[in-house]
Design brief:
166 residues, alpha+beta, four-stranded antiparallel β-sheet, three-stranded mixed β-sheet, 9 strands, 17% helix, 21% strand
Length: 166
């Protein structure tokens, strides 16, 4: 009887742990700070206050949000809570920071009109493992462009089309 119970409880406990982890990954910050950090491969990139690289999904046009549901488990949006406002950290242009209301009602940070996300497989500050994923996810530069390998912030690309989650 004890073995059967463990077989049922263990998967449920694991599922709960994963769910809590995903919820923590998308935790809203009262006043999210966006700062610029140096990347030897990509030049200067935007990062969260904890130094995690920020990305944009190119199939999301200004004013739209396509990464919802399961997509946010891999790409947690940079969110605000309450009446918080995004803050421009070192190397970031305050006038390029903004927000958008997501379909679920939460407020997401934008930069130069681009929605900002973290990547769940970036485990430490400075990781840029999400760069180029599916050909639609790219790190964002302080110039408000998409980063290219070996490019400085001024030689980055603009947003383009592409498929995506939805």
């Amino acid at each position: 009887m004890g073995i059967r119970l463990r077989r049922r409880v263990l998967p449920l406990a694991l599922l709960m742990f994963v769910g809590v982890g995903a919820a923590m990954a998308a935790t809203a910050l009262s006043g999210a700070t966006v700062k610029a950090v140096a990347s030897s491969k990509f030049g200067s990139l935007l990062a969260s206050s904890s130094g995690m690289t920020l990305y944009h999904m190119t199939s999301e046009k200004p004013g739209s949000v396509k990464c919802t549901g399961g997509c946010t488990q891999f790409w947690p949006p940079l969110l605000l809570s309450g009446n918080g406002k995004p803050t421009a950290g070192q190397g970031v242009t305050a006038s390029k920071l903004g927000t958008i209301r997501r379909p679920d009602g939460r407020i997401q940070v934008t930069y130069n009109g681009m929605t900002l996300y973290r990547y769940s497989l970036d485990k430490k500050p400075g990781d840029v493992k999400g760069q180029g994923v599916e050909g639609i996810w790219f790190a964002v530069t302080p110039a408000g462009k998409l980063a290219k390998a070996g490019a400085s912030a001024t030689a980055a690309t603009t947003t383009g089309g592409g498929g995506g989650y939805g």
